[in-house]
Amino acid sequence: MVQSSVLGFPRMGVNRDLKKATEAYWGGKISRDDLVAEGKRLRLAHWKIQKDAGVDIIPSNDFAFYDQVLDHIQLFNAIPERYSKHGLDSLDEYFAMGRGHQKDGVDVPSLEMVKWFDSNYHYVKPTLQDNQEFKLAADPKPVREFLEAKEAGIITRPVILGPVSFLALGKADRNQTVDPISLLEKLLPVYVELLEKLKAAGAETVQIDEPVLVFDLRKEVKDAFKPAYAKLSGDKLPKLLLATYFGDIVHNIDVLADTQSLYGIHVDLVRNPEQLETVIGALGSEQVFSAGVVNGRNIWKTNFQKAIETVETAIQKLGKDRVIVATSSSLLHVPHTLDSEKKLDSEVRDWFSFAVQKTSEVAIIAKAVTEGPASVREALEANAKSVQARASSKRTNNEAVKKRQSEITPELHSRKSAFPERYAQQKEHLKLPLFPTTTIGSFPQTSEIRVQRNKFTKGDITAEQYEKFIEKEIEEVIKIQDELDLDVYVHGEPERNDMVQYFGERLDGYVFTTHAWVQSYGSRCVRPPIIVGDISRPAPMSVKESKFAASVSKKPMKGMLTGPITCLRWSFPRDDVHQSVQAQQLALALRDEVVDLEAGGIYVIQVDEPALREGLPLRAGRERENYLSWAVDSFKLSTAGVKDSTQIHSHFCYSEFQDFFHAIAALDADVLSIENSKSDAKLLQVFVDKEYPRHIGPGVYDIHSPRVPSEQEIKDRIEEMLQYLKPEQLWINPDCGLKTRQWKETKAALTNMVNAAKFFRAKHSS
Ligand SMILES: CN1c2c(nc(N)[nH]c2=O)NC[C@@H]1CNc1ccc(C(=O)N[C@@H](CCC(=O)N[C@@H](CCC(=O)N[C@@H](CCC(=O)O)C(=O)O)C(=O)O)C(=O)O)cc1
Ligand SMILES: N[C@@H](CCS)C(=O)O
Ligand SMILES: [Zn+2]
Predict the structure, then answer these.
(1) Residue 664 marked in a binding site
(2) In the prediction, which pLDDT does 653 show?
(3) Of 336, 429, 704, 764, catalytic
(4) How do beta strands 3-5 and 106-108 pair?
(5) 3 state DSSP class of 508
(6) Are residues 466 and 372 in the same domain?
(7) How many angstroms does the Cα of residue 497 sit away from the middle of ligand 1?
(8) Residue 31 Cα, ligand 3 centroid: separation in angstroms?
(9) Where does the Cobalamin-independent methionine synthase MetE C-terminal/archaeal domain start and stop, copy by copy (predicted)?
(10) Do 680 and 728 fall into the same domain?
(11) Cα-to-centroid distance, 103 and ligand 1 (Å)
């Protein structure tokens, strides 16, 4: 029979229960035992959902209190000494690595956190030493959770991150030079020990994720696969299903061919359906094929007919017992359940499928191909009806938007003059000091702000009352910026629930949800709005707040927008038109907003594009260049409508900009702010090598942690930056917005930042 499987289930729970419990634990409101019990309750609930849906292969160890890669760091005892030396409780040590720890005399920043492939999820980077040793944790989490499920009557397939990906996704610690992959020999015995324990506990198969196979791999990494998997086989070990996702593995298929120790291979057929033939062709005579046909990254209902055709192709070659119907990736990237959405318009609601619904989808497809379509006739008919209704719906088309797109000319993408001319005018107009200080936009989103917004959404306060409240908040942040003596102010974004959702809620062509949360990092979640049709701007979206802020401020006010690519990528996009079309529609809407801001007296405008890097196709080549071309064009289209004297900023919370530097440069933004505080300042060398002419604010401190950086730390960082950037090029700002922080630490950190900037201003003016 064809089995159904899920690669991973979202762990937050139906009401973001894990977020609430974790934050309550951090805030000292619940005990460690309470948090651990809540984790257990959630795991059991999620296993039961999948069992009740009829899923045959249910994952375990997909749960994590903070991040699944961080779990492996602790599992293998790859814990840098700066965390292990304090004798913290293991859960606190784990959170210290995830989010830093500044309490009871312990002061340690978090490990670096970066994007998980091309998703909006972030993982904690394994950070390794030259003399790194590994040791399996005493009570290994994958075994513990397998036994927990077993006790509840559910035999699961544990998920672990494979050794090659664990190392290849890691890095050498600061001042260390080790190439992580060179540590493979030392790591493999720990995997063997873990797998033996899993087998002894009763796990027959294990899902071992090796997602790095979708990248172009360095020779050292590629060559690591065969010897690694040769060692991970034997009678005492479970059967391994190697899983990949978010791309194709055809270019690396030679490392899997002849790897007979693997029981099977999972590939993402939503992203790359064309790899089916090659991967099946490379399988050994008994290996199984796990067909990822239910999208783990988007919320559209699966087209059953298409999915069944794909699975049937595999069955014809391999037979029913060697094919598994699966989600394309873990369902971590989609919201929990559509059942929570009580306010969605029924027409579009019928087009969607969230995690709970997707578990049923894999089960239905598997049944259809095992027992024949008649066994699930009703479900197939209902699905065909939804798919057809969406394809013919009038909601998806807006002729006026299409007409405007057809009239776009190349001139609309360019500023009036080149940077030197623009800068001369901006200097004259804005009169900023050397080393200008600014922030990235958001100030702390206090619980009072969220409570007021919640009251407004529920109708407990009027629009007028809410507006007054927001104005009071804006006045307050202006006063604080006066006290801090910053140079370019922001209005603080108090009116925004999220930098993408806020705009999604104000644009036609979007729908938004009330409960469709997706984990972004740690306890932080986002509620991506959904693009269902052509996008347009019915009215200005941010002008009122920015104008108000400027009216009560004595320094230049920076208007704050989210760029077209970030709006696109952090929404659930349409899958029926190319993403470049959606980006261009967003760019036109934002262009109107930028021009309206300028007309309203806002002469510094920041258009954030932190997701530009995330959208970069994972492999080098033509696809990447194509993407960069339309992505850069969209940004330029959105910003080029202003006068030379108006300063355009853009912001990126990424440090790994080496491979797309030319695209950042091509944006032609007057000022760039980039996340940089946790990376080596020598990454800034690229700006020197490429003779980057415009201005840059590499972040001087990490905003993900409550830890307050000292003035000296910031000065040291600026000193390092000055080895690469000219004083007149350098802006001083944090890594990113401050919405997740508390006011106390925000004021303390910004005071130190402004003092550090003033120190260099004095030094370079004399
Ligand atoms: C910059 N980042 C962002 C990414 N993606 C986005 N879509 N947005 C981003 O900002 N990706 C990369 C990074 C990831 N970083 C973050 C940072 C912070 C968050 C975050 O703070 N998320 C919040 C939720 C934000 C939100 O939508 N808030 C709403 C709803 C608030 C709420 O929970 N309300 C309560 C009721 C009110 C109460 O009583 O408190 C409720 O609905 O039950 C709002 O402010 O109105 C989080 O809390 O996780 C995410 C990614
Ligand atoms: N302006 C946004 C950018 C986040 S990437 C903020 O400050 O939160
Ligand atoms: Zn940012």
Answers:
(1) no
(2) 86
(3) 704
(4) unpaired
(5) strand
(6) no
(7) 6
(8) 32
(9) 435-758
(10) yes
(11) 25
Residue 461 labeled ligand binder: no
**Domains in the chain, number:** 2
Give the integer Cα–Cα distance in Å for 645 and 659.
31
Query: Could you tell me if residue 526 is inside a domain?
Result: no
* Nearest CA residue ID for atom 15, ligand 1: 520
**Segment holding 48, helix H or strand E:** helix 32-53
Question: Please, which residues have CB within 8 angstroms of residue 613's CB and are 6 or more apart in sequence?
Answer: 115, 652, 654, 656, 657, 660
Give the pLDDT of residue 679: 77
Verify whether ligand 2 is closer than 6 Å to residue 608 (CB atom).
Answer: yes
Task: Write phi, then psi, for 342 (nearest 5 degrees).
Answer: -90, -15
* Host domain of residue 596: 433-496+536-764
703 in ligand 2 pocket by Cβ < 6 Å? no
Nearest CA to ligand 1 atom 19: 524
Structure tokens given for 442 = 């958001």
Output the pLDDT for position 596.
98
**Residue where a domain stops, chosen among 364, 394, 424:** 394
Residue 704 annotated to the active site: yes
Residue 566's identity, in one-letter code, is: T
Question: Is 600 assigned to a binding site?
Answer: no
Report which ligand 2 atom has the smallest distance to the Cα of 653: 5
DSSP-assigned beta bridge partners for residue 131:
none
Task: Round to whole Å and give the CA distance between 304 and 299.
Answer: 14
Paired with 325 in beta bridges are: 4, 291
Q: What local confidence, expressed as pLDDT, does residue 415 receive?
A: 98
Residues 416, 643: Cα–Cα separation, whole Å: 7
Residue 262 lies in a domain: yes
Q: Whose CA is nearest to atom 3 of ligand 2?
A: 737
Does residue 519 lie in a domain region? no
442 a known binding residue? Answer: yes
The one-letter code for the residue type at 684 is: L
**What is the rounded CA–CA span in Å between residue 444 and residue 750?**
13
What ipTM score was computed for the predicted complex, to two decimals? 0.97
Is the Cβ atom of 558 under 6 angstroms away from ligand 2?
A: no
Q: Does the Cβ of 605 fall within 6 Å of ligand 2?
A: no
Do the beta carbons of residue 489 and residue 557 sit within 8 Å? yes
Whether residue 412 is contained in a domain is answered as no
Quote the pLDDT of residue 654: 66
Per-residue pLDDT tens over the stretch 692-718:
999 999 999 999 888 899 999 999 999
For ligand 2, whether the C-beta of 741 sits within 6 Å is no
CATH of the domain at 248: 3.20.20.210
**Global model pTM greater than 0.80:** yes
Residue numbers in the chain where pLDDT is lower than 70: 654-655, 766
* CA–CA distance, 553 with 602 (Å, rounded to integer): 12
Q: Which atom of ligand 2 is nearest to the CA of 566?
A: 5
* Ligand with minimal distance to 606 CA: 2
